[in-house]
Amino acid sequence: MGTREGAKEPSHVAFLFGDPVAHSLSPAIHNAAFSALGMDAAYRAMKISPDDLSEAVSSLRSEGVLGASVTIPHKEAAAALVDDLTLHAKAIGAVNTIVVREDGRLLGDNTDVAGFLTPLDSHMEGLRGGSAVIFGAGGAARAVCYALLTTMGPSRLAIVGRRIEQADQLIADLAPVDGLGVLRSTLFHEAERAVRNSRLIVNATPVGMEPAGAASPWPASSDFHDGQVVYDLVYAPARNDEQTRLLRDAAGQGAVTIGGMAMLIAQAAASFKLWTGREMPMDAVRKALSTTS
Ligand code: NAP
């Protein structure tokens, strides 16, 4: 984990392991938090190839290391490299945070669950027992699915994939937390009724980010209506539009909308608390993000 000659090393450090990492907002978030709390600590983004992940995870067992964030494409592989997993990291099969415990053991957790749920808190009462739709069947969809099954108690939860086998695999893997058998897999062109009838619609595909910023995973905006919450995990829409097209369409039809930046900050705050035991100073973090391009 190279250091700059002559630069004073902080006493504590946390890392981001992923590829790519150059455009990640996580260093801005965590370094703003360390700085606002006056902590002698730093957060460093490391571009790590799949071949180097095992060594990178092992290197966390060093003096002063708090832990690491794990992002694409390593979340699943990292789950097999830590010593222990939290219950939900195990159920999801993916880790986005590694914590170095006092005894040196590495704990894998998934703070995407708490990060996803935090912005939904104030809407949860109205959602409970209703049906929901998730676009996408990848890593984030797994965390969302687990979060909803364990808190919202949906009457029906449709996983909308572009490859039905991927959605079916997600359902098979999460069967142990789907006690009532509410999970369903469907393809995009079969999902119209599910979208119209759902109280909660979540986009867990990258559609809406660069280079497809003008695109929506659900272009039929007339399927949205008031009484729905539409939540887009995408946090970097093209051309710095404040909202993705999905959220603009949904808001235009009277739905409540939630953007991905709220989840990004909330999952980072949960990781920060695991590493430091401290609450993330939100004002400082939002200020830092407002000046980060
Ligand atoms: P992932 O594991 O690659 O999964 C992406 C899913 O979207 C897959 O099911 C993929 O299907 C599907 N998909 C991709 N392009 C599509 C298209 N054009 N039309 C329909 N479906 C498409 O990625 P992920 O980790 O789940 O992340 C998904 C999104 O959530 C990303 O934009 C990510 O930045 C965002 N995210 C945000 C947060 C946050 O804190 N706000 C946290 C996690 C993730 P295929 O496998 O067939 O490609």
Account of the protein in words:
The strands form 2 sheets. A 6-stranded mixed sheet has the order 2-1-3-5-6-4. The protein is globular. It has 2 domains: 12-110 and 264-290, Leucine Dehydrogenase, chain A, domain 1 (Rossmann fold); 114-259, Rossmann fold. Helix 1 crosses helix 12. The chain contains 12 helices and 12 strands. The chain has 293 residues and is of the alpha/beta class. The site of NADP nicotinamide-adenine-dinucleotide phosphate (NAP) has 26 residues, from helix 5, helix 7 and helix 11.
CATH topology of the largest domain: Rossmann fold
CATH class of the largest domain: Alpha Beta
The number of domains is 2
Stretches where pLDDT is under 50 for at least 5 consecutive residues are: none
Count of strand segments = 12
Based on CA atoms alone, the radius of gyration comes out at 19 Å
Order of helices and strands: EHEHEHEHEEHHEHEHEHEEHEHH
Shape: globular
Beta-strand content:
15-25%
